[in-house]
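Changelog note: in this version the structure field was regenerated for every chain. One regenerated record is shown below for reference.
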Amino acid sequence: MCDSYKQSKGEWIIIRKIFYSFLILCLLSACSHEGVTEIDITEDDEVLSIQDVKIPSAIFTSHKQNSVIDEEEMRLSIKTYLDSHDELLNASEPFQDAIDEEKELTKEEREKLDKINKLIKENDENFSDYILNNTLPEGYLEESKRISRYIVTVNETLDELNKMLDDNGDFPEINVGAIIKNSKIANGKEQKKIEDFLDEKKIDTKAFGRE
C-alpha cells in the first residue's frame, strides 16, 4: 500500500498542467463530446492575482567553499532553500494560470515572470553548489541531495510542461521521456522520505504545505 502524504503545491501544479495538456490534445484530436465526464480540478488554496504578486526578496545563497558546515547552519540552509522554493512557486502560479487559460501577458508581466524563473534556477543552483562543495554534518549529505534532486526535478518538469504550448498555441516537440523519468524522482514516496527527514531533524519549513 502506498504511504499517505500531503500533496505539495509543485505536484498539484504538475498534475493540473498534465490535465490541461491532455485536454488540449483531446480537443485537437476532435474528440466527441459524448460520454465526457466533467472533472473537478478546483483547488482549496486561494491564488493571488498577477497584480498582487510580489517577487520574493531573498533566495538561498552561500559563498562558502570547502568549509565544514555545522548542524545548526545546515538546518537553516535547508529551511531557507525550501521556503524560497515555496515562495517562488506561489509567486509564479498566477502567471502559469493565465498562460494555461491562454491569456496574453503584458510586457511587464512577462518580465516579472522571467525574474521569478531566474530566481528559481538560482535558488536551485546555489543550494546544489553548497551541498556538493562543502562538508556537511553526519547524516545530512544524502538527504540534502535527495531534497535538491526532488525540487530541481519539480521545477524542470514544470518547465517542460510549460513548453507544451508556445506563444502561438502550437505544440512544439515535447520530451515525454524526460517527463516520465522525472516522475520517478519527484513523487509521493520521495516526498515522504524528505518530510520524515525534516521531522527527524526538526526543520520547520512552509514547503509541502507544512504551514
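Spot check on this record: The chain has six helices and no strands. The helical segments are 9-28, 71-100, 107-132, 141-162, 176-183, 188-200.
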